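User: Predict the complex.
Assistant: Input components as received:
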Amino acid sequence: MGSIERIKNVARRVAKWRAAGHQIVVVPSAMSGETNRLIGLARELQEQPDPRELDMIAATGEQVSVGLLAMALKAIGVDARSYAGWQVPVRTDSSYTKARISSIDDQRIRADLDAGRVVIVAGFQGVDDAGNITTLGRGGSDTSAVAVAAALNAAECLIYTDVDGVYTTDPRVVPEARRLSVISFEEMLEMASLGSKVLQIRSVEFAGKYRVPTRVLSSLTDPLIALDEEMKSGTLITFEEDEKMESAVVSGIAFSRDEAKITVLAVPDKPGIAYSILGPVAAANIDVDMIVQNQSVAGTTDFSFTVHRNEFQKALDVLNGQVLPAVGGREVVADNKVCKVSIVGIGMRSHVGVASLMFKTLSEEGINIQMISTSEIKTSVIVDDKYMELAVRALHKAFGLDQAA
Amino acid sequence: MGSIERIKNVARRVAKWRAAGHQIVVVPSAMSGETNRLIGLARELQEQPDPRELDMIAATGEQVSVGLLAMALKAIGVDARSYAGWQVPVRTDSSYTKARISSIDDQRIRADLDAGRVVIVAGFQGVDDAGNITTLGRGGSDTSAVAVAAALNAAECLIYTDVDGVYTTDPRVVPEARRLSVISFEEMLEMASLGSKVLQIRSVEFAGKYRVPTRVLSSLTDPLIALDEEMKSGTLITFEEDEKMESAVVSGIAFSRDEAKITVLAVPDKPGIAYSILGPVAAANIDVDMIVQNQSVAGTTDFSFTVHRNEFQKALDVLNGQVLPAVGGREVVADNKVCKVSIVGIGMRSHVGVASLMFKTLSEEGINIQMISTSEIKTSVIVDDKYMELAVRALHKAFGLDQAA
């Protein structure tokens, strides 16, 4: 939620849904800029703010939102009641700043719904078993919303965001990108993990785990737009694979520039080498994404992996400082000017030649592929990041995504 | 607490007390301006914000403060842990925006103190039996501090504020005003209720109820000042009446310009008339302060009382709209250009002629007294508010308050 005016618009939209006979639970995020303001205050006191205390502070952003939204609803005659995470309670583990929801008690929420109230639950936050306030990390409000929907067995979870749905790719890169009216959960999961910023991956995982039908809608439309028109917009994340979906081989192109590639050259090719290299990296709390180990040549192999660009230098330090002396490779070569481009589609399961078309398309554009990683429904490549937009546009066209479905 | 710099100063001061071997619980207020900012947001949505939701929002100000102070302490090597009111818990009744503390659980606090931590408890807030967040109203942080001190049976409650103690009167009105090093609890209670803004009256009541030795100190001194020097500053509110205190007949002059006087002329002088007049006023949630009923003349009497100037118009509406038609008085006359000036002193108990000296002093200055109200240790008068400063200065001198004790 942004300004007071946006809070009023949320209230109008909620009132519209309620007037249509629905029971509504709303999970607002903090007002825009608020979370950053709070973290900024913390950083003025501690370079690495204490995680428990940071959560104590950060959780207040959503607590303010829920109270304000309740007021906005009451101001237009809709009875409403707000709850902080601990009041529901939304129980989490104790991993401050990135806690995971373990359970949500639906008793208070149901009692209020039955009493005819709109219930407003603070997103992004919970409480651990010892009664400490926790937060779920960035994008946690989406996860909270899906988790509350799951706990209540809701008919649908509507996620209002600043885009109006999931696109075949980012329209800022490919103007011909089309909005998908439906996407499968598995595809959405890949899109989220591959750099599409529509939904936080953890909220998609949650939707999948509890099979919550989730719809991405725009928060920027007129809040008083007719309900059926509102439902026709956006993208529904579904768990049923219908024919229409299978007809599309590839649903979308995802990409991310937050990549860096690291290769340890000529390490001894023996059992346990992967762990010897990646163990210290994981111990330094660095997430590794793609991993490729090349064919052994003369008893040594080249071992490559990618990390988030922000953790590039940290990873290099670990490799040069700890790994290389221990495993005895020749040297570490690295490149933080790479990007990841991925094609995603549930249809890849039953169609052959999808990856080939991707490689052919990139080849025809003269784009060298540095690493490849595949799963059942996606193929990702690492290429020089100067080719990113070109690669995305070429693939979008090659897979016919610019054609109406 | 004001800015980040002030939070750092609080941390330095706390560290100093702890280094001297004390166990410390800190009850910070919100950062300056924060509570007003939050209430402002609420008012943009509802002219009369829903009290439950207002407390939900307002309580976040102190929640941010406690987290930030914990970080500031950790940053200088002092282990600390913060708690929101509900985490302690600080239990209150359900009177949103003006809740009263019913109990404070000392278990978590004591466990942390025993573990060598500084404990930081959010002031101004609590939780009711149903788990709703409540706030204590303006100045509630002082009350929280005293209540926590009482629950822990603390050696002393130190209230750091933007003045360095309790003065014989407001130094802005009388430059000769002197700081009192000691004041009795009863005198402090009268001073607080009569307009001295050093401490909120409810915090003084709490200190009295649980006999918590409470010291008012300046938050603006150098935080690293020597401890014994710091203790020599400020004012101690004590429960022991020593000789020195009895020697002073009057300890201070309090005053308030927030007054308005209302008189109902020629009401029938019959039993129940006071209730007929003040009942509807109380029902409209208007606090009445002084009440005077004059001698009956020919079966009618004039009935006067004072209200807070902010509630003047509301009170007039009640009287003209409801009371006058019902009780049949002649008319309502009113004046919101009055002030209250009071002398306060525990020595008044055992000294005669104190009120007379007050009346004589005002008479010599040509100040007409409109209403008089007395208690065991104070005498208050209502006078035209243009005489306020003159009355305070004359009384300050007449009772020898400008002389060193």
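Residues 281 and 344 of chain B are 28 Å apart (CA to CA).
Let me know if you want any component modeled separately.
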